[in-house]
Amino acid sequence: MTATATSSISAAHDPDAAAARCVGLVKHYDDVKAVDGLDLEVRRGECFGLLGPNGAGKTTTVEILEGLIRPDAGRVELLGRQWGGQKDQWLRERVGIQLQQTDLADKLTVEETVRLFRSFYPSGRSVADTLELLGLRAKRGARVHKLSGGQKQRLALACALVSEPELLFLDEPTTGLDPQARHRIWDVVETFGAGGGSVVLTTHYMEEAARLCDRVAIVDRGRIIAQGAPEALVAELDAEQIVQLRVDGELDAEALRDLPGVTHVEKNGGDLFRLGVASVGEALPAILGVIEAKSVALQTMTTKQPSLEDVFIHLTGRKLRDE
User: Which residues pair with 202 in a beta bridge?
Assistant: First the structure.
């Protein structure tokens, strides 16, 4: 082996190199700026989540990182290598991708499908081991069109993992699945991460992000507006709990904003209020007092711990699942 080749391989496996990095990423569609000067770095061995409503730019960002579309501006690096040129094949052999929707050949069996994808790579995991990892061994002879939604998602993930990649892209991997199917995919992702793999995940499920992700970035209008560990972002709300109440009658948000223990107030529609509360014991009597003084009827009141969705609403005034 030449000295040049040895140096190249060592650099590619430098533990200090980012699993994925983009700088100044820009992508336009006609007059819509889907990605607007976005900078991002995913560390080796971490699961990094991109959160945001549809149209925020997260899927476009991931598709650029995956090499599926070209940016209008910016630089992309995966595993220490820049996309473009002779190194693209080297990178593709080390990257696994599960798209939002994967259309596999209906008439192939599960085993034939995984074997086909395995044939695309010079090395990787055996077909049998891949089926075992995804819990599909009992379905290896089933035709793709006979599978349930959860089984099809696991098969798509099997196709992404059969090359034994170092970096895995998952774009909404559990959308539309029942809780049991969702948890099975979570287990596979956690196993991949425990083996040292890096993951870039887009999701609308906050429970999914909180369980799987070491760090998340909240994306809105093509830019990252907040980034960090899920628990750190939630802590930045400076609210131990969220109080949500619905009233029948006219109530101004300003009447609640300056109450003792209340840190922020958001009004959704005419009768639904979400309050960040630092002290429930201090805030609840004051809230009830305002409701009585304003002569409005309290329909419902609930309290809960703040979540990543609360962080997003606080930052943007929109829901993560806005269409």
Answer: 50, 171
